[in-house]
Amino acid sequence: MTQLEIRNLHVQADDKQILRGVDLLVKPHEIHALMGPNGSGKSTLANAIMGHPSLEVTEGQILFGGEDITAASPDERAQLGLFMAFQYPVAIPGVTIAKYLRTVMNAHRVARGEDEISLKEFRKTVEQAMALCKVPKTWSSRYLNDGFSGGEKKRLETLQLALQRPKTAILDETDSGLDIDALNTIAEGVNEVAREAGTSVLIITHYQRILHLVKPDRVSILFEGRVVQEGGPELVDRLEAEGYGWVEEQVAASA
Ligand SMILES: Nc1ncnc2c1ncn2[C@@H]1O[C@H](COP(=O)(O)OP(=O)(O)O)[C@@H](O)[C@H]1O
Ligand SMILES: [Mg+2]
Q1: If you average pLDDT over residues 68-78, what whole number do you get?
Q2: In total, how many domains does the chain have?
Q3: Ligand 1 near 18 CB (within 6 A)
Q4: Distances in Å between the alpha carbon of 189 and those of 28, 97, 117, 233?
């Protein structure tokens, strides 16, 4: 069973201490929300889990499926079944979405010692994933992120998620800047992949909005580089009603 476990993780960037002992467990098939105020270290944690080269782990471990991946390369982590919806702010002229998706898919297959996917099989797989994510088929021939709106980029990420069917997906602020229709489509896609592929999801967000559509089993609150509270979905309602003030008071009281 593939669970993601973060133990006492300390992370620095540019000699600045950002994470100060994060403990977090994302169980198989679980939807786990990571919430926290701006600047609490949510994106840093997501990047550290994926092995971003600009971050230095100074203490603690990241375990995936029981294997210590703290020192593994981003590629190795992806091969093990970790997925992160990276944003691709750079348009790549001359590379169509179909070409891009096929390249990514083949890289995974080759790394697993499988043959490259046939064009026919690829088309079938992509069409299924496109239907799931409500992405128009015409997208196949569009160039990667060329003239894509924020919402379209997010949908492309969901499409990648549906194609890759990873063991664990990390979605960082997938809801930011989306209108309600785009948010609904993305939430449906995420729920469907989670249900169909059994993907566990670490959904990172500052706001509660998306958590009404992708319902978390567990909720962790990150504050100043530590997980200071863990609970069930009722935490989402509490944050919605009261904001983060009580979290801060609680941390101050226990200091
Ligand atoms: N590469 C970096 N170098 C220096 N400081 C950074 C770097 N990345 C993030 N930080 C700082 O770390 C803190 C946490 O940032 P971040 O992880 O983006 O928080 P969140 O995603 O919760 O808003 C912020 O104070 C931010 O300015
Ligand atoms: Mg962030």
Answers
A1: 92
A2: 1
A3: yes
A4: 19, 18, 23, 20
Write the pLDDT tens digit of every residue in 103-120: 888 888 888 889 999 999
- Domain containing 111 equals 4-254
Q: What is the pLDDT of residues 21-59, one digit of tens each?
A: 999 999 999 999 999 999 999 999 999 999 999 999 999
Q: Beta-strand (E) ranges in the chain?
A: 4-13, 16-26, 31-35, 56-64, 67-68, 82-84, 92-96, 143-144, 168-172, 200-205, 218-223, 226-231
> Which has the higher per-residue pLDDT, 46 or 2?
46
| Domain containing residue 245: CATH number | 3.40.50.300
Residue nearest to atom 9 of ligand 1 (CA): 44
The predicted pLDDT at position 208 comes to: 86
Q: What is the CA radius of gyration of the chain?
A: 18
**In the numeric block, which tokens belong to residue 255?**
């200091």
Q: Is residue 40 lining ligand 1, measured as CB closer than 6 Å?
A: yes
Does the pLDDT of residue 137 top 50, yes or no?
Answer: yes
Give the residue, 99 or 8, on which the prediction is more confident: 8
Contacts of 3 (CB under 8 A, 6+ apart): 25, 26, 27, 28, 64, 65, 66, 200
* Ligand 1 in reach of 44 Cβ (< 6 A): yes
The response to whether residue 2 sits with its C-beta less than 6 Å from ligand 1 reads no
